[in-house]
Amino acid sequence: MKAWQFTNTHEPLVLTEVDEPTAAPNGVVVDIKSAGLCHSDVGMLEDEGWLSTLAKRPITLGHEVAGVVTEVGDGVTDWKVGDRVGFCPTTSAGAPGYAFDGGFSFKAAIDQEALVRIPDNVSFSQGAAGTDAGMTSHHAVIANGQVKAGDKVGIIGFGGLGSIGARVAVLAGAEVYIAEVNEKVWDQAREIGAKDVAKSIADFKEIGLDVIVDFAGFGTTTAEAIETVRRGGRVVQVGMGRLESTISTKTLILSEVTLVGSQGGTKEDVQGVYDYFATGKLNPTVTEISFEEIPEGLEKLKKGEVVGRLVAKIAD
């Protein structure tokens, strides 16, 4: 079967013929229906700092995976052929696309520990987006942001993660303000319940934001969040658009700002997002492309040309 594989930084993905996987003990094989594209995939292609996260090279990228179980290994009791599943990338089984071959192909093998059941009325594209973008956003806002009803919350970046995170904050009862440089999505930001939208989070300095979640992570955005959040407020760093930032430790200390890193989430976060999807209250924009368009899609992500979450539809 064919797979888009990563070989090295600053080199394009290579379309390669690879062997079909088989189910290991306590594992399953899944026919991949959808695979999400993420800014961290772009980072992998651009920044050598990501190389240490890989178990091998070449490797099939794609850590946002949804599909149907087609084979079960010895010891698997809770899953059967035909089950609709998403892969949680943060369990001890490891992350697809990093610890083992991921979703930019047609089949994948994974330990049963990582599986999360997709409700029947949730699409595979939503299922893929929920595994990382949804999980990460839910965890950043609810667990690490500690957002609750009545809070004033700033969201930096209204892309694949930020659009979900912003809506989760709205559903939690917060008053949400969004910073997004792409004015084309401002109307959409307001439609999901944002109180206001601007190009920079600094424009909301006078609001007195209790929590700011930075889903962009381009260095300057982190610095601006620390300068903007209220005294005693909380900044949650999620985005890794750049792997370094220069911040004012003076402001961090004198304003007693809490700066928290937020990576991924848990199977419970994935399930929580799937449950939101199933109710229809959370319905993020998903842009679908074909398997062949994955490299082009990553280039569009790099250029900031994608609205919502970008998902490759691998099979019907």
TrEMBL record:
Domain of life: Bacteria
Residue ranges annotated for the Enoyl reductase (ER) domain, each copy included: 8-312
InterPro entries: ADH-like_C, ADH-like_N, ADH_Zn_CS, ER, GroES-like_sf, NAD(P)-bd_dom_sf, Zn_alcohol_dh
Protein source organism: Arthrobacter sulfonylureivorans
SUPFAM superfamilies: GroES-like (SSF50129), NAD(P)-binding Rossmann-fold domains (SSF51735)
Keywords: Metal-binding, Oxidoreductase, Zinc
Protein known as: Zinc-binding dehydrogenase
Requisite cofactors: Zn(2+)
Entry similarity comment: Belongs to the zinc-containing alcohol dehydrogenase family.
Gene3D superfamilies on file: Medium-chain alcohol dehydrogenases, catalytic domain
